[in-house]
């Protein structure tokens, strides 16, 4: 019973503090009773992810090795983008763990969210081990194993279920509350109300995400503000607030909404843009709009294996990659990192969110003129079908 309570408390703590780095020891860990032919799963050293991954592997009775590499105590996606989880960290982990002595194969199953920061060829060259991209979400690992270590399309795509949305939302609320706590000390009567508003606003916009209008010309923001103001007005009438009291709480509510809405400009994988873009255009469209040069593309499909939003597909006609849903892009830039021929251009020019720092010469590459690829825009919206783990344009 005590163990269960401790586990729940630990989960709640890390749920509410996801915005902060909590490293665990880098190591090789045995799950179950692994042998020389057992799989190796890779993780960063963010304690919350490691604990969750271990629980999934143990519950599914998967005998395996878990290689925990240095990600500066951050989640893999953020660490990879910030150049804190790269091929060098994985190479170091492989060498320290002496993997060659543990297994008789050369495959490591890695999270696709590491793709923006990891050079697979360098790992193969330095260690002999080959990186295999596993499911986008660790909860799909049991299905992946049962499927003979083969992914289907659903395992490659980010779904953003309720838990995936609500955990960052609650963590956002805590991060902002801790930031303004110094001011709240001087207004103790406001602490409880401000806390409820911050948690409520983040729950509303993240938790109810699928049911809210699309953010186009500020539709989501306006709708959410109207609903939450109506709720606050009802409380004001019930509590018989004075007009000045109502305006104070309305100001706090609007401030919380502004923070939540602008924080959505890239803090999660739901949206990917900048605050400036949102202020000017009232939408969360990515600044990266991929378009593929068919002459440079060699048809290797590496970009298709790491795209978490179904933006790219393979043409059955040309055997090359084409961009079919560029507006769905969340600017993880994994495709750019994994493309060996630099065939991916940005139709919008050099504009980027500028939070991916793990790709050498990124801005020079993205600033290349894509005007000569205008004919490639005909692939956008093309009808596709699923074949294995990728989209195909028949």
List the helices and strands and how they pair.
Layout lengths: L1 H15 L10 E5 L8 E5 L2 H13 L4 E6 L6 H6 L5 H11 L1 H4 L4 E4 L9 H8 L2 E4 L7 H6 L6 H4 L5 H23 L6 H17 L11 H21 L3 H21 L11 H7 L8 E3 L9 H5 L5 E4 L5 E3 L10 H5 L5 E3 L15 H5 L18 E3 L2 E4 L1
Parallel strand pairs: 2-3, 4-5, 7-11
Antiparallel strand pairs: 1-3, 6-9, 7-8, 10-11
Q: Find the structural class using helix and strand composition.
A: alpha/beta
The count of DSSP E runs of length 2 or more, i.e. the number of strands, is 11
Distance between the termini: 56 Å
Unreliable runs = none
Q: How much helix, percentage-wise, in residues?
A: 40-55%
Largest sheet: 4 strands, mixed
Please give the count of helices.
16
Proportion of strand residues: 5-15%
Which radius of gyration do the C-alpha atoms yield? 23 Å
Topology pattern, helix = H, strand = E? HEEHEHHHEHEHHHHHHHEHEEHEHEE
Shape: globular
Give the strand line-up of the largest sheet. 8-7-11-10
Instruction: Report the mean per-residue pLDDT as an integer.
Output: 90
Describe this entry's structure for a reader.
The protein is an alpha/beta fold and 394 residues long. It has 16 helices and eleven strands. The protein has helices spanning 2-16, 47-59, 76-81, 87-97, 99-102, 120-127, 141-146, 153-156, 162-184, 191-207, 219-239, 243-263, 275-281, 302-306, 334-338, 362-366; strands spanning 27-31, 40-44, 64-69, 107-110, 130-133, 290-292, 312-315, 321-323, 344-346, 385-387, 390-393. The strands form four sheets. The chain has a four-stranded mixed sheet with strand order 8-7-11-10. A hairpin with a 5-residue loop joins strand 7 (312-315) and strand 8. The radius of gyration is 23 Å and the shape is globular. The chain starts with a helix and ends with a strand.
């Amino acid at each position: 019973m005590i163990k269960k309570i401790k586990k729940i408390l630990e989960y709640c703590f890390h749920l509410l503090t996801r915005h902060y780095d909590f490293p665990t020891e880098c190591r090789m860990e045995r799950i179950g009773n692994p042998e020389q032919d057992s799989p190796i799963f890779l993780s960063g050293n963010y304690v919350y992810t490691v604990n969750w991954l271990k629980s999934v592997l143990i519950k599914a009775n998967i005998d395996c090795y878990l290689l925990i590499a240095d990600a500066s105590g951050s989640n893999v996606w953020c660490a990879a983008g910030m150049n804190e989880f790269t091929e060098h960290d994985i190479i170091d982990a492989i060498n320290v763990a002496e993997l060659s002595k543990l297994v008789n194969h050369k495959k490591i199953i890695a999270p696709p969210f590491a793709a923006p920061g990891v050079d697979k060829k360098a790992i193969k060259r330095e260690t002999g081990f080959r990186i295999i991209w596993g499911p986008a979400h660790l909860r799909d690992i049991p299905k992946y194993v049962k499927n003979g270590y083969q992914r289907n399309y659903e395992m490659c795509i980010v779904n953003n279920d309720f838990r995936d949305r609500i955990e960052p939302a609650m963590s956002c609320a805590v991060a902002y509350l801790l930031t303004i706590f110094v001011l709240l000390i001087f207004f103790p009567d406001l602490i409880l109300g401000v806390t409820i508003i911050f948690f409520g606003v983040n729950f509303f916009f993240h938790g109810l995400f699928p049911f809210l209008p699309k953010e186009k010309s500020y539709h989501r923001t306006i709708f959410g503000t109207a609903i939450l103001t109506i709720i606050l007005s009802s409380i004001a009438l019930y509590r018989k607030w004075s007009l000045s009291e109502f305006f104070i709480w309305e100001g706090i509510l609007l401030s919380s909404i502004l923070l939540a809405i602008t924080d959505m400009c890239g803090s999660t994988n739901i949206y990917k843009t900048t605050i400036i873009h949102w202020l000017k255009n009232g939408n969360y469209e990515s600044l990266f709009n991929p378009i593929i040069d068919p002459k440079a593309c060699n048809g290797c499909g590496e970009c298709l294996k790491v795209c978490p939003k179904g933006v790219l597909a393979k043409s059955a006609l040309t055997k090359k990659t084409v961009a079919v849903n560029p507006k769905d892009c969340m600017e993880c830039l994994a495709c750019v990192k994994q493309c060996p021929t630099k065939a991916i251009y940005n139709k919008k020019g050099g504009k980027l969110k500028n939070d991916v720092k793990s790709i050498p010469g990124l801005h020079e590459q993205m600033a290349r003129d894509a005007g000569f690829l205008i004919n490639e825009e005909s692939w956008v919206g093309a009808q596709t079908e699923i074949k294995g783990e990728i989209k195909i344009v028949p």
